[in-house]
UniProtKB/TrEMBL annotation:
Highest classification ranks of the organism: Bacteria, Pseudomonadati, Bacteroidota, Bacteroidia, Bacteroidales
Any matching Pfam family: Plug
Species the sequence originates in: Parabacteroides distasonis
Protein name per UniProt: Outer membrane cobalamin receptor protein
Its membrane topology: Multi-pass membrane protein
Keyword list, A-Z: Cell outer membrane, Membrane, Receptor, Signal, Transmembrane, Transmembrane beta strand, Transport
Domain of life according to the entry: Bacteria
Family: Belongs to the TonB-dependent receptor family.
Localisation per UniProt entry: Cell outer membrane
Length: 1096
């Protein structure tokens, strides 16, 4: 690792040295300061060079306003421009510049005063527009009425410009009064977006492709790139289900893509497969999302769930830039249920016992002792586990430093980042360090080379007992269990399980991840329009886990109770993944007769994946401090290891044709081969076709062109494959080794070989076909942008395992047996404009997808409370249909009950509907035949709203996000009272009684009792609405004015405050965060940060 760091530092130093070694008068400078005084302009030139400028301020009017707006201009040339028409010039002597009067000539004669008014295309005055005499720094800005006055030479040309509008040039010959109408800048129509293995103009896209810029990501000030994608792309659902340090968000594009395999999209970083969170947001240039099969089919079998293309930043020629973005903040849980105190708990469970015809568990004497004397933490405990285990405020900070620069021959971009997050429980944290370097070399006019290097390391620290296990116990345990005794010893918790002791003294698990990516590229341009590119990329990822299970002693009533767990143990595991990729491609594009645009592309790619792992453990560590593997009991040693390999080979091509910028067609095909299948099923061909019609380019559309800039309809069809299985050799009969057999009387384990799985040599690719119909509208001088897509996605030959009889003793083989459909739509509406000095933008998105399993070959899967079966969404909630509460014994006698024993049923129990029976019709009993689909866990109507505004030096951004429809199955401690012998929560006390017949919860009963079991069976009663709207992010920033920065060398300094997950509206939802998991897992957190963004 030290050697790698040295290489990166050397690259950075060479780049900096190269830039600084340029002659000072040859260095190119860029300014965007608008109109400032000539004195301020001199000071700025001095700040970027070693020159000192001298002048006589009694003769030279240094208060005169000049336009400081130079781009990539040499220092002395910029000075000449500033002095033009001032009557002065300069002389140099070493590092000194003397401003002197120039000889009288015609440049100071024939001057005249011009004036005018500037309006937009609606006739509204444009305030603050720049009016400059071309080729000089002589200029002014318009006033509140859009008017200007300026003295110029007699043959001058005026340049009129304003942000968001096209620049106009006007000759002043024979004219002194002007009326100027500015048109909106339509360069958005020329925007180029990244697509598979290349780029295309946005207006010429025929597939469902949407892109976002680095500014869209960084303005939310997050450490996770995957979380920053939320709400930016319609049809892409990003869910943050955990607040654990280092937790990433899950991503789905247009619904679930398979029953058994991963539904996450393919993520490519500069063309190489990677993880969205492996790249720092400040190093990202743009992100493109390929949503439909036509745009993604160039990646074939790897793109069945969509593709995310991440392009990282690269250095610009002859420009040195340094930037730093960092923040510090704190995290706190968004929502966790509030447990009751000891007295309330005892009274509630006594009531539950009475409701179940049992004697109360706690006497009035015990309860009164708590009421009068409280807890003594010796014999009586009143433990609020949540307050003890959770830290309400924890630290987080993030830092990112980027440096780029170089010449036209060699340029380098380097980004280094560090992120740290402290967890909500003890011994829980995450830290990540990364450095990325992108280097470009121009070898000749026709040959270029590139080298990308990315090094990352992350360390995850958790209690050995497991973070989720500890949180589960914390939220479930009753207040009567002791956590800490008065003398500082550990309480016994529940039979020795004390989540606070587990977190602090139970040992630590450390996961150390090291990742190195290298990619080399060679690009050849033999003729105009043709590029031949070859690249080789290699990734080496290593994961090391080190877990030591410590013991702790528990006490109760001053007496030693037990040591938990009974023995100390150590487990270590090492895992390695090596990926190698070779890619060769050729691209040719040309325009014939000004109306026929052609672009062709051919490519070849090979991929190799190699996995290897090794692990070992020992128990019985008897001495503190002696915790290495060899210090454990040798007789308890266990070792394991495995390795696997996967190879793929691909041929692909794409053809684009455009006629007269109106009629568009794209043909794509990919031929993939995978070692996961036998030779006869190894190869799959995945074609696509897409067409588009730019109606706005037709002559009959001309009357509408003033309002609508671009109107395009498009349609596409594409097919994709999927071979993503956990098993690398599903077609082969596999033998396994196991050292767990005894022979004879030796009592020693002997290694044996056995078959553990049935194979299927006939399996092949899962197949996905998608039809997409889209509409793109850009209107009102690109201020309005609307995109709409409707799609049908058919998934067939899904790989699944049907159950076999246990007598076989082998796992089920994989089979191509199942079809599924996703149909839905995506809508994106964006608007940007300005009102006076306020620039604002609005981005609203809404999407929906409906999932249905269409064929399972007559099978169905049932797993307690969910099922996958034909005609319904995948993993639908499954159970009985609740019909309110029984309100009287008479009602119970006249209604079927679960279990058919009406004597055990009381008013306040949940009532279930009799909807079927053995003959398919109601039979007067509540049996398994009455179980049915009771909810859809898939999110529907995902929406988001992004609002942004800029005024003077302030910027303001708000992001709202939510789900319009989703069914959540309430389970676990926060959902049900006394769950698994646990506590009860404040909101669960709203339970049925004679006085509270419409309560939120049924009659209080002890979990595990007859009535408790009857109420807790899976039913629609426990299916709640998971619809919510969340104020996801708010940020406020302030950038220091340019005149304050002065000679500091800083081009921009911005301070910002940001808040994440600030407010959630979820009607009727109680307990945990609706975006997360209602079971007892890591709460989603609110994050508050203060940061600074500095650019040099």
């Amino acid at each position: 690792m030290n050697r790698n760091k040295s290489i990166c530092i050397t690259i950075l130093c060479l780049s900096l040295a190269m830039v600084r070694s340029l002659p000072i008068d040859a260095q190119k400078v860029t300014f965007h300061d608008g109109f400032i005084s000539l004195k301020q302009a001199f000071e700025k030139l001095e700040s970027v060079s070693t020159y000192k400028i001298a002048y006589n301020d009694s003769q030279l009017d240094v208060s005169r306003k000049v336009l400081m707006d130079q781009k990539e201009m040499e220092v002395l040339l910029a000075l000449s421009q500033l002095l033009k028409n001032t009557g002065y010039t300069y002389k140099t002597n070493g590092n000194y510049i003397l401003i002197v009067p120039e000889k009288a000539d015609d440049t100071t004669k024939d001057r005249k005063r011009v004036s005018g008014v500037i309006v937009d295309n609606q006739g509204i005055p444009v305030i603050g527009a720049n009016v400059v005499e071309k080729g000089t720094a002589n200029g002014t800005i318009t006033d509140i009425d859009g008017k200007f006055t300026l003295e110029v030479s007699g043959n001058a040309t005026l340049q009129v410009s304003y942000i968001g509008y096209n620049t106009q040039e006007l000759s002043v010959s024979g004219k002194t009064d002007f009326s100027v109408k500015l048109g909106e800048d339509t360069q958005a129509l020329d925007e180029v977006v990244v697509v598979g293995y290349g780029t295309q103009k946005k207006v010429n896209l025929t597939g469902a492709v949407q892109s976002i810029s680095s500014q869209d990501l960084t303005k939310r000030n997050l450490s996770s790139s995957s979380q920053a994608l939320q709400g930016l792309i319609p049809g892409m659902v990003v869910t943050q289900s955990s607040g654990a340090p280092g937790a990433t968000a899950s991503i789905q594009i247009r619904g679930t893509g398979s029953i058994n395999s991963n539904s996450e999209p393919l993520v490519l970083i500069d063309g190489v497969e990677g993880d969205m969170n492996s790249v720092d947001m400040n190093a990202i240039e743009s992100v493109s999302v390929l949503k439909d099969a036509a745009s993604a089919s160039i990646y074939g079998s790897r793109a069945s769930n969509g593709v995310i293309l991440v392009t990282t930043k690269r250095a610009k020629e002859n420009k040195l830039s340094v930037s730093y973005n960092g923040y510090v903040g704190f995290r706190t849980p968004t929502s966790t249920p509030n447990p009751v105190d000891a007295v309330t708990y005892m009274e509630a469970i006594n009531q539950a016992c009475v409701n179940n015809n049992q004697a109360p568990q706690y006497s009035e004497e015990v309860i009164n002792a708590y009421k009068t004397s409280g807890a003594d933490n010796i014999h009586r405990y009143d433990t609020n586990w949540k307050d003890l285990v959770f830290d309400e405020i924890t630290l987080t900070h993030n830092h990112s430093l980027s440096v780029s620069g170089g010449s036209d021959m060699l340029k380098t971009f380097v980004n280094a980042s560090y992120n740290y997050e402290d967890g909500l429980i003890p011994n829980n944290s995450f830290k990540r360090t990364a450095i990325r370097s992108n280097t470009d070399v121009k070898l000749t006019e026709w040959l270029r080379a590139g080298l990308n290097l990315n090094i990352r390391r992350s360390i995850q620290k958790d209690p050995t007992s497991g973070t989720n296990n500890i949180i589960n116990s914390t939220l479930r345990f009753t207040p009567l269990f002791g956590a800490v005794n008065n003398d500082g010893t550990w309480g016994n918790g529940q039979n020795g399980i004390n989540p606070l002791a587990q977190a602090i003294d139970g040992g630590v698990k450390v996961v150390d991840n090291n990742d190195i990516d290298v990619k080399g590229t060679l690009a050849l341009t033999p003729i105009k329009g043709m590029e031949i590119l070859a690249s080789y990329a290699s990734r080496r990822y290593e994961n090391k886990q080190d877990k030591f299970q410590n013991t702790y002693d528990t006490y109760e009533g001053g007496n030693f109770i037990m040591t938990y767990p009974t023995t100390k143990s150590r487990y270590e595991e090492w895992y390695q993944l090596i990926k190698n990729q070779f890619n060769a491609q050729v691209t040719y594009e040309n325009t014939f007769n000004e109306r026929h645009y052609f672009k062709g592309f051919l490519g070849f790619q090979t991929d190799e994946f190699k996995n290897k792992s090794f692990g070992g453990s020992r128990n019985n560590y008897y001495y503190d401090g002696y915790e290495e593997m060899n210090h454990g009991d040798a007789s308890s040693s266990m070792v394991n290891g495995n390795s696997s390999k996967l190879t793929m080979m691909s041929y692909f091509a794409r053809f684009n044709y455009t006629f007269a910028d109106k009629y568009l067609i794209e043909l794509t095909g990919r031929y993939d081969g995978s070692s996961r299948f036998t030779a006869k099923n190894r190869w799959g061909f995945f074609p696509s076709v897409s067409i588009g019609w730019r109606i706005s380019e037709e002559h009959f559309f001309d009357p509408l062109k003033d309002a609508i800039d671009n109107l395009k309809i498009r349609a596409s069809y594409g097919s994709l494959g999927n071979q993503d299985l956990k098993d690398y050799y599903p077609y082969a009969s596999v033998l396994a080794l196991d050292a767990s057999y005894w022979f004879g009387d030796s009592k020693n384990y002997t290694t044996g070989i056995y078959s553990n799985a049935l194979s299927n040599p006939e399996i092949s690719w899962e197949k996905s076909q998608q039809f997409d119909f889209g509409l793109d509208i850009t209107a009102f001088n690109t201020r309005l942008d609307v995109t709409f897509d409707y799609y049908i996605r058919e998934i067939s030959d899904m790989l699944q395992q049907f159950p076999v009889t246990y007598a076989v003793g082998l796992t089920s083989p994989w089979e191509n047996a199942g079809n599924m459909r996703n149909n839905g739509w995506d809508l994106s509406v964006m608007w940007h404009d300005r009102i006076g000095k306020v620039k604002y933008n609005i981005r609203a998105m809404l999407s929906d997808v409906k999932n249905e399993v269409t064929d399972l070959y007559g099978n169905k899967y049932i797993n307690d409370n969910n099922t996958t079966q034909e005609g319904f969404p995948i993993s639908s909630w499954y159970g009985y249909v609740a019909d309110g509460y029984f309100q009287s014994k008479e009602e119970i006698n006249n209604y079927p009950v679960y279990g058919n024993n009406k004597d055990n049923v009381k008013p306040g129990y949940i009532k279930y509907k009799d909807i079927s029976g053995p003959e398919g019709v109601p039979d007067g009993q509540i049996t398994d035949a009455d179980r049915t689909i009771i909810g859809d866990p898939q999110p529907r109507y995902s929406f988001s709203l992004n609002l942004g505004a800029e005024w003077n030096n302030f910027d303001f951004n708000v992001f709202l996000q939510g789900v319009g429809k989703r069914d959540i199955f309430f389970n676990g401690a926060g959902a049900r009272p006394f769950w698994m012998g646990g506590t009860v929560y404040e909101h669960q006390l709203d339970s049925w009684s004679e006085e509270n017949r419409n309560a939120e919860y049924p009659l209080l009963l002890i979990d595990g009792s007859g009535g408790g079991n009857m109420n807790n069976i899976p039913s629609s009663f426990w299916v709640k609405s998971g619809a919510y709207m969340r104020l996801k992010n708010v940020s406020v920033g302030y950038s220091l004015p340019k005149n304050i920065l002065g000679k500091s060398g800083l081009s921009n300094v911005r301070f910002y405050l940001s808040g994440q997950n600030l407010l959630t509206i979820a009607k009727g939802y109680k307990g945990y965060d609706p975006e997360g998991d209602v079971s007892s897992y890591y709460p989603v957190t609110q994050v508050y940060t203060f940061g600074v963004d500095i650019k040099f």
